[in-house]
Design a protein that fits this description.
The protein has 273 residues and is an alpha+beta fold. Helix content is 36%, strand content 22%. Strand 9 and strand 10 form a beta hairpin. The radius of gyration is 18 Å and the shape is globular.
Length: 273
């Protein structure tokens, strides 16, 4: 455990963490079993410096394609480089039908982010260009847990084709720093992306997240939800990752169901935290 605290949590700068601040919660396995998936979940209570995790080794040591969670970073880089001006910037559809009807139109970044449309973000990545994209990935240290990641000829697919891989704890570190304006981008850029991540807001809690759905090198279905829940002005950061050997497994209902079941078990969504 000490090795993990010193190594895996270092990118997150969780200064307060010690073995006493980490709870391995195997009781959460029931939610994964219910949906017939493998995976991991981690929740960081920023105020208490406490970390709860299911499947610790997978959370810290196993790297996977970020899939559409990369839209967080892609959006930030797009804003920073001027590839887009703000969340209302529209990119024109290239008229190629790629199988998702809702993506077959011109749309703003806000719409593309919320619908999680890969073609829109692939066009933006090409606008950003390889030199600028590589520069910002290097600045972030993105996908470099096991050595420097270098973009090849796949400027518009590297986050989808298993070229770039991230660990769940790296994902957690990104959303934590995004919340506190600690990423190496302008505060305006970080605010715009945070706003796009908000899905639920009421008098009890606010829920922010970005989903991802892709495939592993074994052609297994892979799902992500990364973000935070805020209650009484206090943030709790989370990462949920799912994997199914069934290539056709529908990640959409499983991701949100497991996330909300876990949050409810931990006493969230009632405004009492």
């Amino acid at each position: 455990m000490t090795r993990w605290i010193a190594g895996a949590l270092l990118p997150l700068l969780f200064v307060a963490c010690s073995p006493n601040n980490v709870t391995v919660d195997n009781d959460l396995k029931k939610y994964f079993d219910q949906h017939k998936v493998d995976g991991t979940f981690g929740l960081f209570d920023n105020g208490q410096g406490h970390f709860s995790v299911y499947n610790l080794s997978r959370f810290t040591d196993s790297a996977y394609s970020p899939a559409s969670t990369f839209k967080i970073v892609n959006s930030l880089i797009g804003l920073e480089t001027g590839a887009v001006l703000d969340s209302s910037t529209v990119i024109t559809w290239d008229s190629v039908n790629r199988g998702r009807t809702e993506c077959n139109r011109s749309m703003s970044m806000q719409e593309a982010f919320r619908l999680s449309c890969p073609p829109w973000y692939q066009q933006m990545a090409r606008r950003i260009g390889k030199p600028a994209m590589q520069k910002w990935l290097d600045t972030l240290g993105y996908a470099q847990r096991y050595g420097k990641f270098t973009i090849g000829d796949n400027i518009d697919t590297f986050w989808l084709d298993n070229s770039a891989k991230v660990t769940a704890d790296e994902e957690l570190g990104i959303v934590k720093k995004l919340y506190f304006d600690q990423l190496p981008f302008q505060k305006r850029s970080q605010r715009i992306v945070r706003d796009m991540m908000q899905w639920e807001k009421n008098d009890k809690y606010s829920l922010y997240y970005k989903t991802g759905w892709g495939f592993t090198e074994k052609n297994h279905a892979l799902g992500w939800i990364v973000g935070w829940i805020e209650e009484n002005n206090h943030p709790y950061f989370f990462v949920l990752q799912l994997e199914s050997a069934d290539h056709n497994y529908d990640m959409k209902p499983a991701r949100i169901a497991i996330l909300k079941d876990i949050l409810k078990q931990y006493g969230f969504m009632e405004g009492k935290r």
